[in-house]
Amino acid sequence: MNGRIRFISVIIILLALVVSVRLYFIQVVYGESFVSDAQRQNVNENTVLYNRGNIYFQSQAGENVPAAISRSGFTIAINPQIIKNSEKVYKSLSQILVLDKEEFLAKVLKKNDVYEKIAIHLNTETADKIKALNIYGLTISTDKLRFYPGGKLAAHAVGFVAYKENELAGRYGLERYYEDVLKRDPSKAYNNFFADFFSNVKGSLGDSPQEEGDIITSIEPSVQLFIENELESVRQKWDSDEAGGIIIDPISGEITAMAWNPSFDLNDFKKGDVKFFGNPLVEGRYEMGSIVKPLTMAAGLDSNTVTATTTYYDAGFLFLNNKRISNYDDKGRGTVNMQEVLNQSLNTGAAFVALKMGNEKFSEYMKSFGVGTETGIDLPNEGRGLIKNLDSTREIEMATSAYGQGIAFTPIATVRALSVLANGGTLITPHIAKKIEFQNGLSKKISFAPGKQVIKKETSDEITRMLVNVVDKALRGGTAKIPGYSVAAKTGTAQMTEEGKIGGYIEGKYLHSFFGYFPAYKPKFLVFLFHTYPKNVKYASETLTDPFLNITKFLINYYQIPPDRPEN
């Protein structure tokens, strides 16, 4: 028996030795020969494919629309050490591919290299045509690459994947923020059945940051495209430096659209300017001007400092701490009430409210709107507002803050603050991701409970009524109202400073802003628009009223929002 065991053991050892020797000859002795043959075969099948979770927009009908996917394709490369007749090779390839001749010939001259890419993202048909050329020294590799079907659509929100040193990962937008969910660990492909079976159940429910899945967003592609086209038109018409817009559900915090112009193509971001890659709607800080007045007025109403009918004498200007502030036109209106302060956008009226409240109370209310803190939006590099002037004990800083100068907010923080007026008085968490669909088939809905109550519901109702009056009576003399719909809105025009600074305003350089929500008393959407340094025009009502109305009417029709009041 022992002899038989010894015999079997010897046989096993001999077989192992034979296999080892064979592998040695394959890998070492004949390795170069096999490489040469592979070069002649023209096709190099890459078995370690880049993979990553997908990002989806969601249509109004509830369908997932790809925003970022991993797409199979082909990469064409040459070995400069093997390519002999570069002119001939170029001529053959140029019949199929669009190639820059000088660039191609320069790559062929890199005789110290063995691999130079000349084309990527090719489809199967094109790759087959190139393969049929049977060019010695040319390889066709299969791969999976990050692809963005929308191109420029929501580029700043989606972000992109890129190399940093040797690491390929999300660098901007949702791609970066949800990196732990979107990235794929190649080693997991070799996990055995039992490891998968006994994996942490809690992790499978999405509580683990390492859980892999796809991101479903609240961005509606048709709405996103519409607002992007409107912003493009605004910039072209007024020669603005930049323009941005956000459409949000002021109750849930879900963002339907987020757009910035100038933009870039996510599939060709290397040709873009790196300064455009960040998201100014989340990172930038701006003095917003008169759209801050409704926040000031809401604070005054909520603290019982004023009512809509409270009056003051408007001389057109004020002297505070030896500084002069004035209305936009430097004109006085005499005795006016708080409704007219909003209707006519009077700086002196906003200052009156703040001064009557007192610094401590006014500052407390403004900070409660969250303008100086991060909103918690699911995008990277969120900035914080510059609100140092709210802590000043001087009247001049309090007065200018009341009408949106001397303090600067991020656009997303501005939207969150203004949503308080629309939603009954609560602080929301703006967010883009709506759901995570995990690879194990489970999913996790992303939602946030209402935040703290900032103002009373009665205050929210009253400031909404006052802002509806602005549209019905004041905006373009009442001609801008939409029959059958209550719309609450306010414009803003602010002097601009050098980027990132407070004070030291540049003559003739303005930021125009506009916000509105509808139906006013049960709002579906809040729309926020702004652009910087429009040329040969001074007021936001001239530049942003039409874009706001266009977007509002589109949303009403697209979502079939029913009228909320009789037509007048």
Put the structure in a nutshell.
The chain has helices at 2-29, 31-41, 86-94, 101-108, 124-132, 155-158, 173-177, 179-182, 193-197, 201-204, 221-238, 280-283, 293-302, 338-343, 347-357, 359-368, 395-402, 411-422, 457-474, 540-543, 545-558; strands at 43-44, 55-58, 64-78, 116-122, 138-147, 161-164, 167-170, 213-217, 242-248, 255-261, 311-314, 317-320, 323-326, 334-337, 433-438, 443-445, 488-495, 510-518, 525-532. The chain is of the alpha+beta class. The chain is elongated, with a radius of gyration of 31 Å.
Tell me the name of the CATH homologous superfamily of the largest domain.
DD-peptidase/beta-lactamase superfamily
Cα distance, first to last residue? 106 Å
Biggest beta-sheet profile: 8 strands, mixed
Rounded mean pLDDT is 87
Query: Globular, elongated, flat, extended or rod-shaped: what is the shape?
Result: elongated
The CATH architecture of the largest domain comes to 3-Layer(aba) Sandwich
* Helix content, binned percent: 25-40%
Which structural category fits the helices and strands?
alpha+beta
CATH class of the largest domain, named: Alpha Beta
The value of Rg in angstroms is 31 Å
Poorly predicted ranges: 21-49, 189-210
- Count of DSSP-assigned helices: 21
Number of strands: 19
